[in-house]
Amino acid sequence: MIDFVGRKQWFFLISLILVVIGIISLVISQIQVGAPLRLGTDFTGGTSMILQFSPADNLEVSWRDFQSKLREEMAELGYAEATIQNAGEGNFIIHTREITPEEARELAEKLGEDLDFQVEITDYYLVSGTVAAKTTRNAVIAVIIAAVAMMFYIVWAFRRMPSPFRWGTCAVIALIHNVFIIIGIFSFLGWFAGVEIDALFITGLLAVVGYSINNTVVVFDRIRENVSRYIRPDFAETVNDSLIDTLGRCLNTALTTFFVLLAMLLFGGATIHYFVLVLLLGVIIGTYSSICIASPLLVVWERREWRALLPFTKRTA
Amino acid sequence: MRSRNVYLLIFILALFGFALWSVVPLDRNVLGRDGLRLGLDLAGGSYLVYQADVSDIEPDNRDEIMEGVKGVIERRINALGITEPVVQLQKQEGEYNIAIQLPGIADIKKAKETVGLFAVLEFREQDEAGNWTPATGVVTVNGEEKELILSSRYFKENTIPTVDQTTGKPLLIFYWDEIGQQLSKQITTRLLGKPLAIFLGDELIMAPTVKGVIEDRGQIENLSLADAQELSRLLNAGRIDVPLGRWVEGEFEPSVPLYERTVDATLGQDSIQKSILAAGIGIALLLIFMILYYRLPGLVACLSLAVYGAVLLAIFKLVPITLTLPGLAGFIVSLGMAVDANVLIFERMKEELRGGRSVGAAAEAGFNRAWTAIRDSNITTFIACIVLFWLGGTLGALMVRGFALILFIGVALSMFTAIVVTRTFLRLIIGSQVVTNLSAYGVTPSQIVRNAK
Predict the structure, then answer these.
(1) ipTM of the complex
(2) What domains does chain A contain, in order, with CATH numbers?
């Protein structure tokens, strides 16, 4: 039998390291990009478009090299501030200042001529700065409201347990942990690979919030059941038993969702590439956190072993 | 108990049959719907959002006028011959937005020009050849004589659809302002007994016959109440200039959209093919996994997922719900939840079997015990969906709402399939005693002995 609860320090340490790396990445991004995350058109306003390049002579092209050529060319045409993301197979997502569809077409034609590629605008997207500010505000509100509403629901669902507030808090801490790690990863992708976050990112994040709470609730539900019918005196053992009981379910559910999402990440369209990545990361981290963070946290709180949160303290088994 | 299961089975089969019949083939016309409604990221097309400058309108009249503006734009867009355009009026924090969806349109420029036109309704008369020409009159403005066209600009106040007290028939009453009175008097005198047409752009709205000279107050008769209301809205929208554009730092920029998105139709088809193929591969893997791991219950789960898939597709088609790429991802996540509900039940069932219970008792216990987990975990997902849908109006336009809506429907349906469909199938199979071998349920006899110790 695996002793999840006994290894809690290690899990907390791993999460702590991930969170610290995330913070470092946010700081680097703030310095390099000017924001903790590279903000897309939905949040900053401006125009973004997907340009599909196909080589005039059907030769193999190194799209990585092409990306830097494209960047130089854009700078020459007066779009030095534009961000360019490689979306695979000759698709490039370009985010720049506000330009009209006509200007966009001219720009695309000029790029095609100069680089000797056939080029097509497959997606043109313009967002005014005023809406963008509102979007940013609403995105933050959405995540906060969702987290608070879920916490209250869990407190209500576990109202028959002693101190239901504790269950809700632990679930929400795990949730914030998940969201934070994903934000950290995207912040890294932002300054490393020019990946921007958009409204879909927030949507994905909220889906992850729902998913990770969902997972935590399944585990908590088992703990609730085992506590109420069990004769085991030790809460830590009850929690660990419950984790073992639900492990099969957690892994199977995660795996099945993982299959489908992975297939969509590998073979799906360019527009939802990073959206699917958010969901995929959410499934992995959500499963991990409900087993290794939320439940052990309950034990720590129950026993008031706050020192156990710190790594390398002596195990009180 | 047994007969109840049989009734449930008949209900499920009927539902499944209806769902299959309505979605196979996908373009069969069912209840006036043929094919799925695809969002612009899948079908290609444009999405435009304009803000309205309502600063010249009294606050009390804004709702009414903006409804009229929406009606005017709807008519214009329909006149362009685009299939299934959608025009929506969004009211947020005292601002009015007009959102326009144009599926599969090639000429966005023309559509934008059309939208930007002023919503004036013109009055026209017939010349000898029967062609409609603008009805004009000569008026004196500031001491100068001018030839002006009679139009909705000269309404003194909003027109009111009402019912004639004596005949009980709907009427539309209107009042002219000073210039309108002069024009109207000249024109109606000239056209007594002849038709006077109302045009929106080049579209003839209606051509009532002039029955008397109209000076300050006129009325249009012989309308249905719905027509009277519609016409009143159009006329009122044409009375006041409501420019569409956007606000930038307190300045109004006419004709520039707040949002504009155009997706190439080929990109849309490309992504739909790729994404559906990808989802198909993933789902196939998922089903194989379920059967290998859970054996007979896994097979039952696959059957109930088939019911789930068919019913969900039928809902998408018949409601109809616009399918977008994020919506497809929402479907995948909800499928994950549907599988999850089954997995929760089967894991529970296995445990009970290992505990030495009979297959029937284990299945019942599995369903009962798994229910609280399924309920609590899905309600948290509903909360996320509701928050997303509520705030989705401003978040990235259409995509976010599509995701939230589809996830919500999918999760609700997944609870139904797990609790009703899987349960009924499993009960009937167990009850019929066709399969009694425990290994078919993924439990070996040795495990029971070991756990019973």
Answers:
(1) 0.81
(2) 8-36+131-309 (1.20.1640.10), 46-127 (3.30.70.3400)
